[in-house]
Design brief:
Order of helices and strands: HH
Oligomer: single chain
Distance between the termini: 55 Å
Helix content: over 70%
Largest sheet: none
Length: 45
């Protein structure tokens, strides 16, 4: 019920859509960091 109030703008906080976007961006950041680590390791050879 609290989350619904936040989503409707009746209460301050992080909306469901913002939370989903944050989760996706965190996943993307994790993947990019892993890719960078792999590329750095490959450049050593």
């Amino acid at each position: 019920m609290r989350q619904a109030e936040i989503d409707e703008g009746e209460r301050q906080g992080v909306t469901t859509s913002q939370s989903e976007e944050n989760r996706k961006l965190c996943q993307e950041l994790k993947e990019l960091r892993r890719a960078n680590e792999i590329l750095r390791a490959a450049s050593v050879f």
